UniProtKB/TrEMBL annotation:
Keyword Lipoprotein applies: no
Alphabetized UniProt keyword annotations: Membrane, Transmembrane, Transmembrane helix
Domain of life: Bacteria
Protein name: Membrane protein
Entry's transmembrane regions: 33-52, 64-83, 411-431
Organism: Acidocella aquatica
């Protein structure tokens, strides 16, 4: 016996583990037994009343017990008809839930979508949700940002390929000149030049130009001498050109080279003049709208030229190939740049309240814009899930969750019937001749 007492709890625990609805099933069974026992009590009292001696109290008990029994049976039939055919008989309008499960699923889906996922409730939920904090936690976690950066880098070739589409290419060809052709372009250029000047990089640009000029003069010295001699011949005649052309050409080139050599890397009048000119032009671009607009028009004209556009697209093609190659590398520069950008965004969200507010507003806008479509899809999804359940599954799940309360209906119906039967019997007795 002790062994049996030890095995029973183990078997019960195993059944509880394998069946997650075991507690609900046990509770429903207890309430069914109680309701059925009460109904059986009414039947027993009604039957016993016929064995008692005739009298007012016997009549009262019989009427009350019969009314309670009838009320209990009626409610048992109603509750049972929701889930199955009573006594297995195919009575019309019984087994309502199994027969109407698709309509029930659609109604449940519409209810959840339209009365649970409402715009007001979603706004309240998003208002209490720390979207920037969640995003920041994700962005500051290296184990999360690294895969995200690799995924974004993997999308880069497709994004770059979309720019090569004919429509995108024509659109950019029209937009770039317009974007660069206004006064704002001059301001942007002024700021860029200001950054170069503050860092002294403009002198490096100037040195590069001088070196290129020197190399060009050396490489094309013979051509330049011939051009100068021809110019001397045109101005002074054949004799002067023959006598002095070569000498003039040589002296001119020598003087130019000597002047270029005098421009030292540290300081010179030409470098100082270049520095002064650049700063003056930066000031004009920032303060003179006409000058900024003039530069914008010049840039627009340059960019609109077919040769420049062909050169720009050639540069773009080379850049695209380099980016695609780098994006395919797990430890490429593209992945590192994207990962650093994500980490920087996470730091900004932790410090900048304006950025946090913008994230919250963006999340709310996106969610609310998607809400109507999400509601429809949610309703359809719930309807499909419920409609796909087999009859036994849906009946079992619903009965386990509402069956307990329905058993109280049976109990109440039995007790209310018993009380009403007693009251009606008492009222009948109170009428003239009712006691006979």
């Amino acid at each position: 016996m002790r062994v049996l007492h030890g095995i029973a709890p183990a078997l019960y625990a195993a059944r509880m583990t394998t069946d997650p609805d075991a507690p609900l099933r046990a509770s429903l069974k207890r309430h069914k037994l109680f309701a059925s026992a009460l109904l059986g009590l009414m039947a027993a009292l009604a039957a016993a009343s016929y064995a008692l001696p005739p009298g007012p109290w016997t009549t009262l008990l019989r009427d009350a017990a019969k009314a309670g029994f009838i009320g209990g049976v009626a409610d048992w039939f109603a509750v049972t008809a929701l889930f199955r055919h009573p006594l297995g008989l195919p009575i019309p309008h019984t087994a309502i839930i199994p027969a109407q499960k698709e309509r029930l699923g659609n109604a449940l889906g519409r209810f959840v979508a339209n009365h649970v996922f409402t715009e007001t409730d979603i706004r309240k939920f998003l208002g209490n949700l720390d979207s920037p904090g969640i995003l920041r936690q994700f962005l500051t976690e290296p184990t999360a940002t690294r895969p995200a950066a690799e995924a974004l880098a993997g999308m880069l070739p497709k994004l770059l390929a979309s720019i090569e589409d004919g429509r995108a290419r024509r659109l950019l060809a029209r937009l770039l000149p317009k974007l660069i052709g206004g006064r704002a372009a001059g301001v942007v250029v002024a700021r860029a030049l200001g950054g170069l000047v503050e860092g002294g990089r403009h002198q490096e640009v100037f040195s590069f130009i001088l070196n290129q000029l020197k190399e060009t003069l050396v490489a094309r010295e013979e051509v330049l001498q011939a051009a100068i001699k021809e110019r001397v011949r045109e101005q002074g005649g054949r004799l002067v050109g023959w006598a002095l052309g070569a000498t003039v050409a040589k002296r001119v080139l020598t003087a130019v080279n000597a002047e270029l050599e005098r421009v030292s890397p540290d300081s010179s009048e030409m470098r100082d003049a270049f520095d002064e000119w650049v700063r003056f032009e930066i000031t004009r671009l920032e303060t003179d709208p006409a000058r900024a607009a003039e530069l914008g028009r010049a840039m627009q004209g340059v960019l609109a030229h077919e040769t420049v556009q062909a050169w720009a697209w050639d540069v773009w093609a080379r850049l695209r190939r380099a980016l695609e190659t780098d994006a395919a590398l797990p430890h490429g520069r593209s992945v590192s740049v994207i990962e650093s950008a994500l980490a920087s965004l996470g730091e900004i969200l932790g410090k900048d309240e304006t950025a946090r507010a913008r994230v919250n507003a963006a999340v709310e806008t996106v969610v609310l814009n998607l809400l109507p479509a999400a509601q429809a899809e949610l309703a359809a999804f719930i309807g499909r899930v419920v409609g796909a359940w087999d009859t036994a599954t849906i009946t079992d799940k619903l009965e386990l969750r509402v069956g307990k309360d329905l058993q109280y209906i049976r109990v109440n119906g039995t007790l209310v019937g018993f009380i009403l039967g007693a009251l009606i019997s008492l009222a009948a007795m109170a009428l003239p001749g009712g006691g006979h």
